[in-house]
Design goal:
The complex is a heterodimer of chains A (322) and B (320). Chain A has 322 residues and is mainly α. Chain A has helices at 2-28, 35-40, 46-55, 62-75, 89-124, 130-143, 146-160, 181-215, 218-225, 230-269, 274-283, 287-315; strands spanning 80-81, 87-88. In chain A, strands 1-2 form a two-stranded antiparallel sheet. The chains are: A mainly alpha (322), B mainly alpha (320). At the A-B interface, helix 1, helix 6, helix 7, helix 8 and helix 10 of A face helix 5, helix 6, strand 5, helix 10 and helix 11 of B.
């Protein structure tokens, strides 16, 4: 286990370095236009351009420039937005983190719970109407644009049925945990459901496949022969083994969620998280903010994936020797 | 092929897809011959005839301060403003067809480019092994670890400001090629990694040793022996990647860093409709339905192709 952990950490460091290098090359070394003009934003004054040029060392060698970028991002943490008249970028990012976290974690809990329930139902009543329903939800889920689903939800809950069925739905926006758990959850309920709908079907389908395989295994037959009730066989024996396969899938999708779907969901529901911050910066070409959100979000996703891998190796010793 | 033709779901999906493509190809015909409109020019002060009465395309708002305008809603009449107008008075139905052309074209070209690059990367990594494999695999690992949307956002925002000029290759910043190249690149590992694994296994087969032993060059072995064996995998990936690329393209366009105005794509139309969501929901809803319909069709077609080419996948899928 220790050797696996060391090897995984080494590869983690390598990937983090490569990603930061890639972002650096994209922002500062892509041929086409002057990098200081990119950082300074549209119609920047000559003075701002000079300031950017010296701050990021564009007159010096590429390795020095890379070092300066990393220093602004991680050591001095003084990256500045020039479009937004000298506002510091990183406080904005850290203010946005709890919002994105609340969104993603809540959605993940809902979709995993729904997927487990659905897959158990499908495995229990194999070959009935439950199977095709789950399949259809899975296929439709991966085919829907998430921001569009969010808009439909908004249309129904905020406008069309707001005076009748959805009177209890609060206006769009985020309420912090300090305002009370109930308020917080109520504000996030529909964003959570929107995200969960997309994944629950796929997970239920994968988990159902695993469950069906597990139910044909010898240990399940042994359990049944011992007279263990069917429900207990399903939950305690088959489900426990099947969940292992979902853990690695979850790691990947969690990353895709933080760096993609959550971003779009925040925009539609007006939640001031990392995604909304990125979106607003895209609108006014505020590149320092985009650079910071991209690098921090990518780092978070990569580290989270490494943790999932370690957890996976802990659950299933076979993985350690790949 | 016969298995695929017997698969009713996949055939229905293919028909839906062909119908969508045909409709989108007919966009100029619809625009000029049926709707008599210009899908790309704003029409702020125009009028049209609804129920025999002339009505403005953009009417002043009655509620609030009365400063805004409300575009005309869906007339459900093919000859003008079937789905209403957008905030600039342009016919949404006509833009929907033009947008579909871009969305589908970008999705398909990006998927094609992605499969092509993945074939080059995957086959050479698996075939040569050693250092080549080591370097290529590390590169793929890094792109794989980089969340797709974040990478695409970085690339788009930088390339949109100045286009791309690498040696003889020049892509202007408004070009449709830009999203194609970006999407094709970011999804490479998703196809290249499974492909590499397959080639690694093929490399040990006797017919490869026989070809190498009979003096064939590496390039010839890869082209004549390895590639035909991994081609089914690539064909299976193509419709699935088209669906994924199309969804990602529309998301980028929705974020205003994909297809640039005045060009349309389904994502940009949804973005146009965002501000009109509560007054004229059709503008945002209709393109979403189009995206979902095409993506479901592509996914079902992809599943059908996979079942036809690899009967074992069907069994593993748990249809027991």
């Amino acid at each position: 286990m220790l050797r696996f952990a060391l090897r995984r950490t080494a590869s983690l460091v390598f990937v983090l370095f490569s990603i930061s290098l890639l972002v650096f090359l994209i922002f500062f070394a892509t041929p086409g236009s002057d990098p200081s003009a990119r950082i300074a934003g549209r119609n920047a004054s000559q003075a701002t351009l000079t300031q950017v040029r010296s701050s990021f060392g564009f007159d010096r060698s590429l390795p020095v420039q890379y070092g300066l970028m990393m220093q602004h991002l991680f050591i001095d943490r003084d990256l500045t937005s020039y479009v937004n008249r000298g506002a510091k970028v990183l406080p904005q990012v850290s203010a946005a983190v709890p919002v994105t976290f609340s969104l993603v974690l809540g959605a993940a809990v809902i979709w995993v719970v729904v997927a487990i329930a659905g897959s158990l139902a499908a495995a229990r009543w194999r070959g009935t109407w439950v199977d095709p329903v789950i399949m259809v939800i899975g296929v439709v889920g991966v085919s829907l644009p998430v921001y569009w689903v969010g808009e439909v939800v908004n249309l129904l809950t905020q406008s069309r049925f707001h005076d009748s069925l959805f009177r209890w739905v609060p206006p769009l926006g985020y309420a912090p945990l300090s305002a009370g758990v109930g308020t917080w959850a109520l504000h996030l309920l529909f964003p959570w459901l929107t995200l969960a709908v997309l994944y629950a079907g796929v997970y239920a389908r994968v988990l159902r496949g695993e469950l069906v395989t597990a139910l044909n295994e010898d240990y399940v037959r042994t359990a049944r022969a011992k007279g263990v009730p069917e429900r207990r066989v399903l939950v305690r024996h088959a489900l426990r083994c099947s969940l292992i396969a979902v853990v690695s899938l979850f790691g990947l999708d969690f990353g895709a969620l933080v760096g993609g779907y959550a971003l779009l969901t925040e925009v539609v529901f007006g939640l001031q998280g990392i995604g909304k911050l990125t979106y607003d910066s895209l609108r006014n070409y505020d590149l320092p903010v985009i650079m910071a959100t991209v690098i921090y979000a990518a780092f978070f996703v990569v580290v989270a994936n490494a943790l999932v891998d370690l957890l996976y190796a802990r659950l299933d010793p076979r993985v350690r020797h790949v | 092929m016969r298995t695929l033709r017997r698969n009713r779901v996949a055939m229905a999906a293919l028909l839906v897809l062909l119908a969508v493509v045909a409709l989108c190809l007919l966009a100029p015909v619809y625009e000029h011959q049926v709707a008599h409109t210009d899908a790309f020019a704003s029409n702020v002060s125009g009028t049209t005839v609804v129920d025999g009465k002339p009505s403005p395309i953009l009417a002043p708002t009655t509620d609030g301060l009365g400063l805004g305008v409300v575009p005309i809603g869906p007339t459900w009449d093919l000859s003008h403003f079937l789905f209403g107008a957008d905030g600039q008075g342009r016919d949404v139905a006509a833009r929907l067809l033009y947008g579909g052309r871009n969305s589908l074209l970008i999705g398909f070209s990006a998927a094609l480019l992605c499969c092509l690059l993945a074939a080059v990367f995957g086959v050479s990594a698996g075939y040569f092994g050693g250092i080549v494999d080591g370097v290529l695999s590390r590169v793929l690992d890094v792109i794989w670890a980089f969340p797709v949307y974040l990478l695409a956002i970085c690339l788009s925002v930088v390339l949109l400001t100045g286009g791309l000029h690498v040696g003889p290759i020049t892509i202007e910043s408004g070009s449709l090629l830009l999203p194609v190249v970006i999407l094709g690149l970011v999804y490479v590992p998703y196809v290249a990694r499974p492909l590499r694994g397959q080639v690694l296994a093929l490399r040990e087969k006797e017919f490869i040793s026989a070809a190498v032993g009979s003096g064939a060059s590496d390039l010839r072995v890869m082209r004549r022996e390895v590639l035909p064996n991994v081609l089914p995998t690539l064909i299976v990936f193509l419709p699935l990647m088209t669906s994924i690329c199309m969804l990602t393209e529309s998301a980028l366009s929705f974020l205003s860093i994909g297809v640039q105005p005045p060009d349309a794509s389904w994502g940009t139309i949804i973005n146009d409709g965002l501000g009109l969501l509560y007054t004229r929901p059709a503008v945002a809803l209709v393109p979403g339905v189009a995206i979902a319909l095409s993506a479901v069709a592509l996914n079902l077609l992809g599943d059908g192709v996979r079942d036809a080419l690899d009967p074992k996948a069907r069994l593993r899928g748990g249809d027991a």
